[in-house]
Structure formats: structure tokens, C-alpha cells
Amino acid sequence: MTTGEEQKKLTTLSIRERKNAGKKIAALTAYDFTTATLLDESGIDVILVGDSLSNVFQGNETTLPVSVDEMIYHTRAVQKGIRRALLITDMPFLSYQVTVEDAVRNCGRVMKETRADGIKIEGGLPIIDVVKRVTDIGIPVMGHLGLTPQSINVFGTYKVRGVQPEEQQKIIDDATRLEDAGAFSIVLEKIPADLAQKVTEKVSVPTIGIGAGPHCDGQILVINDLLGLNEHFRPRFVRRYAELGESIRTHVRQYIDDVRNIRFPDKDESY
Description:
The structure is a single chain. By secondary structure, this protein is of the alpha/beta class. The protein is about 45% helix and about 15% strand. It contains 12 helices and 8 strands. Strands 1-2-3-4-5-6-7-8 form an 8-stranded parallel barrel, surrounded by 7 helices. Helix 3 (about 35-40) crosses helix 5, helix 7 (about 130-135) packs parallel to helix 9 (about 165-180) and helix 9 (about 165-180) runs parallel beside helix 10.
């Protein structure tokens, strides 16, 4: 039985308060109404409509091709399935990097058309002015440091970031800059656990880890990876809680066999 607190709609403030209370934050991605409904009913704290939909939904190799219109489409569908979780949506590549004015216009459009609770923006120093301006006009921002997939063509690899002392210090500095600019939380992706711990202790806003060890204030995974639907993607940081890919194939094969052998539909399934 859930308590009144567990049923109450989560906000950016209640997520921030989790850090002070020492209560870990559980986050997952979703890209459709049905999945969002199941996650929300299960008690997830944060649902992110990630630009990872470019990979797991559209079949692209990177997150770069997804558009603002596509992010809006998926976020609107997800929003309809949420009653309690905090809903955040990714701002896709080139929707905020050109000018501050473009960023404000695009972020504002996403918020108006999706009824999301906030947006996520990748990067540090180069986009600090964007974070400050967007938060100043009332749009909550979740930051994202470490491995930032929209910069994959610059990195040239999906290897762990923040290994070298210079990059470690840059990540720490960027985290404090994001906090000062008004970000309410920061995703830390694929960085060493000890670095993530330093960042988590340095800033007063929650850190959400993905491949960043156990010391972050919360964790996030892509739902397709957690459920074993993305079978060929097996990074070290993903724990597969199910193998639904094989389960789906098994049941679809059973359906095919039933149809071909006239076992479906039966009398009770016919009018």
C-alpha cells in the first residue's frame, strides 16, 4: 500500500530535497504512453524522455538525428501516462547550441507543447549562459556532464570520460557552474566512481549517475537496456533485470504456431 507522500506528484524541489534527506533517486527513460504508465505506477521518481530514442526507437547509430518535433511528439505521449513521476525531456542536438535566443525559444516551445516538468541539456562551460537564461525565465534545467552523447563525434569514442586529471577538474568545475547557473540536478555519465563522488559532494544539487558508480544521489538507465530489449548493447554499467527480447520471440512464435495450426482463435475468442 502506497502512502500519501508516495502518491504525491514529484517536483524539482522534492527531487532536490532527496539529496539532503539522503534518499536515493530512481530514474528511467520512457518513450511511449504504455511504458510511462507502467513506470509511474511502479513508483519511479523521474522519467526522462531521452534523445536516446534516436537509438532505441528510431534505430540510429547516434542521438544526433532526432529533432525537436520528434522529442515533443514522444514527450506528449509519455506525459499522458504520468501521475506522480517528475517528467524531464532532452533538448536535442542543435536546439540550444546556436544562440541563447534559439535555446530559449526551443526550450519554451518544448515546455508549452509537452507539459514536461523540465528539460535536460548536455554540456558545461559553453552552455552555461543558456542554462542561466532558461532557468531565469522559469524553465527547470537538468545538466549532463561526463560522456555527453551529442558530442560523440568530438570524443570519437564511448569510453569513460574524466580519467585524466585535467578533464576531472573540468567536470568538477562545470558541475559547480551548472549549479550556480540554476540547474536543479546533474546527470553524470560514464565517469570514474571516485570522480562522481567528488562531484556529488561538491554540489548541493542531486547527481544522477549512469555508469558513474554508487555514490551519486540517484541512478538512471535506459528502460530498453534494463528489460533486455536491446540485446546487442551490453555495457558494463547496465544491469539487465529481465530478458524480454527472448521472451517476446518465444511468445510470438507460439502465436504464429497457434494461427497456422488453427488453435487461435478458439470458440471462446470468437463472436
